[in-house]
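The data are quoted verbatim for reference:
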Amino acid sequence: MAVGQCDFPEMPAVAGVTLGTACAGIKQTVKDDLLLVAMPEQSSCAAVFTQNAFCAAPVQVAKAHLPHSPRWLLVNSGNANAGTGAQGMQDALMGCAELAGLVGGTAQQVLPFSTGVIGQPLPMAKITTTLPATVADLSESHWGKAAKAIMTTDTFPKGVSKVLMVDGHSVTINGIAKGAGMIHPDMATLLVFMATDACVKPDLLQACLAAAVEQSFNRITVDGDTSTNDACVLLASGCSAAPEILAGTGHYEAFAAAVMEVCKQLAELVVRDGEGATKLMRIIVGEAASEEEAVRVAKTIAHSPLVKTAFFASDPNWGRILAAVGRAGVEAMVLEDVQIYLGDVCIVNNGGRALDYTEEAGQAVMDKAEITITVKLGRGAFTQEVLTCDFSYDYVKINAEYRT
């Protein structure tokens, strides 16, 4: 169940980038579960990966291949190829080698990605048999098919597109994402693939992506679990007629802002599709002494099962929010300076419940599908926002039955 209207947008072609999908039958045989993304020789590639120590075999291989001018992304859903030891590494490398043989590249030019159940061997025979079909399916118009092929427990495909003008020439940025559970990124989200036809050198593209990820995917959480397979990739084909994007220019500022916007919109779609979610919660912490402090307080609220279940029940049990703020580790916090709001309703002021707060006012906010919690710490000038969702019965059911 998604929160709000989340229709897949019209996705224009990104010159030079093609996508192909096919059904390998990895976990099911109803939908495509294999995705190939191809880009031209002059392309740049940037990526960030999970910080989970048990990172999956494809993450390890992709990290090793990233400096070698990648031209192909090979993605499978239905199996994470994580916790699979030496065999998992062999399988990830085999997929790269098999694809390279088909497309005339080198194995190091292929970045592999997997998502799905952890701890099960990747069925390589199914994948290698299906690879030719993904190559044959390559097209600039297959963004919608690609978004569907990488889904696992997602209830809808996630895509965002943005076009900006650079010296009178259009630059397109497309992005797709998958993710609904095991979402508490320490770099990105489960899987995100973005592409642009801009000309941007790899180092600058990497800096642009890292900055965008920090303020988007690193500001969302569904359940506080960081995946073994998180990855976020940004490709730049260089096929636009626009001039090269250079550091320290107005063109770079506009391009970086557009990438940031695409990342933020994709991140919000992931939270809207949180497993079993019925509410979207924006947690804004302001007047903090530092950015880190603001994020820490916001995530403490966002990770609280008591807060999240209260929101599922539409229960204005504001004491749970107050308790989360209090245990967030803010040193020497002056309680009388803290203000907490549900929507525009002040619930905490001067160290306790706001004098004009009423249960009816709180209930009116809690009955909404999208709710903002604002905390003013009264300590400084820093503000950060974290997005999360509620915990419902369906979240437990989805994850209890995940392997069945």
